Amino acid sequence: MTLTIVTFLMIVGRCTILIYLVFCVPILTTILYFIFKNDTAASSSNQELFFKNFNFGGHRGSPEKAPENSLASFLKAKEDGCDLVEFDIHMSSDGVPLLMHDDTTERTGNANLKVEETKWEVLKGIELKPVKNMTDKIPKLNEVIDWCVENGLKMLFDMKNDNIALIELVAEEIRKRNIYDRVLVSSFNPIVPWRLKKIDPRIITGITLDRSYYSYSDDFRKSPFTTNIFAHF
């Protein structure tokens, strides 16, 4: 008799858990969806304009003809017929958004400094390593945006971390120029596009994926970011 009661209680307990899962999990999932969802409709018209008449893009400009992520490289990309340039964004220790692919300047510059620990006053003096006898300096993000707008190039921002201060600065650069249909912001880190949409749903965002990754944790470039010349072609 005692064994029968115990068995009955176990069955009831399992049924209670099953009922909880069936009814509560969908409700909780729905609540979380509405809490964290972003307004994608706000950027739909901008997306259409962004991709209209788009044919070619230059990855970090034209890095085989000029130093990557430089104005010289973007000029070469334009001369080669590109409609868009992609570039990588970091931020200096004193809060200046700038263009650099790696965490450090070792691979592309004539000094080895960690970008986020160095002031802009120092970084702007670094000479980029020459490509085809052409060199340049590290540009600020706002300088590059202005140059691209003046030269009719669309832009793809590749943001390297989810620093909220940098995300807010990027959103402000887009907002104050009203260039929502000329910029797409992407990242390997899914937090970046999510935060951008929360700040301004009109911004076009994307997630950069590599088919060899199953999740963001598979991205070996999270931190510290690679200085390997073979990384991220």
TrEMBL record:
SUPFAM superfamilies: PLC-like phosphodiesterases. It holds the Pfam family GDPD. The chain crosses the membrane at residues 6-36. InterPro entries: GP_PDE_dom (IPR030395), PLC-like_Pdiesterase_TIM-brl (IPR017946). The keyword Hydrolase does not apply. Keywords: Membrane, Transmembrane, Transmembrane helix. GO terms for molecular function: phosphoric diester hydrolase activity. Residues 54-233 form the GP-PDE domain. GO terms for biological process: lipid metabolic process. PANTHER family: GLYCEROPHOSPHODIESTER PHOSPHODIESTERASE 1. This is GP-PDE domain-containing protein. It comes from Caenorhabditis briggsae.
